What does this fold into?
Amino acid sequence: MDKLMIGVTSYYICLILANTLRNSWTLETLIKASTFSKFMLVMLLITVTYLNVIYIRAESNIKKKRGNQRIQVEPNNSKKLFKTLSQYNKEKEYEKNNIVIILGKKTNNGG
It folds into this structure.
């Protein structure tokens, strides 16, 4: 419904512009005012139709792109910490008397 309203409004604006150009046309010796207004009306209608098609295609592409985006749920932080501790324990062998403190881990979220 919004697309129809935008199309009708834009065509109405074309009619207003063509009428305004016809009323302000002063070069009657070159081209008649009615001929000029018809020419401008056709040119404006072609331009507005093209812009409306571009708008509709852009809107549909945005909807498709939003639909393809997946919602990613972050895993629980305690599971991440357990994985990092277990990986650290496997990678490094240390004595039982050592104290290990892991301050943080840098992650790249892709953004």
In short: The radius of gyration is 33 Å. The mean pLDDT is 77. The helical segments are 2-24, 33-68, 77-91. Residues 33-68 form the longest helix (36 residues).
